[in-house]
Amino acid sequence: MSPLLQLASLATLILLVVAMALALARVLRGPSAQDRVLALDYLYVVAMLVMLVLGLRSGGTMYFEAALIIALFGYVSTAVLGKFLLRGEIIE
């Protein structure tokens, strides 16, 4: 891996960690439940991006599989939380 690519991926990881910290602050401090759900949605997307960047840095396939699992669970959890906020129950 070239030094420029290493530097760019390191800068990307730092910025993604800052984005995760800001999203976590919104989850903890959000004024409404909808804001918190949106911040959780953003948090799983950023976590997936962190896994992808780590996979590019290391060259291993394990990180890509973990990113796929994070995306799958994130989508399902967003759908469940949306249904809970709309109807007040998850299972009908």
Task: Describe the secondary-structure layout.
Layout: H1 3-29, H2 33-58, H3 62-87
Helix pairs in contact: 1-2, 2-3
Overview of this protein structure:
The chain starts with a helix and ends in a 5-residue tail after the last helix. The protein is an all-alpha fold and about 90 residues long. About 85% of the residues lie in helices and about 0% in strands. The chain has one domain: Helix Hairpins (Orthogonal Bundle), CATH 1.10.287.
Integer tally of domains: 1
Mean residue pLDDT:
91
Q: Largest beta sheet, briefly?
A: none
Which class of secondary structure composition applies to the elements? mainly alpha
Write down the Rg.
16 Å
Fill in the CATH topology.
Helix Hairpins
Question: Beta fraction of the residues?
Answer: under 5%
The shape is elongated
**CATH architecture annotation name:** Orthogonal Bundle
> Tally of extended strands?
0
Helix content: over 70%
User: What is the CATH C level class, in words?
Assistant: Mainly Alpha
The first-to-last residue Cα distance is: 52 Å
Order of helices and strands: HHH
Helical stretch tally? 3
Residue stretches low in confidence (pLDDT < 50, at least 5 long) are none
Structural descriptors:
single chain, 92 residues, mainly alpha, Helix Hairpins, 3 helices
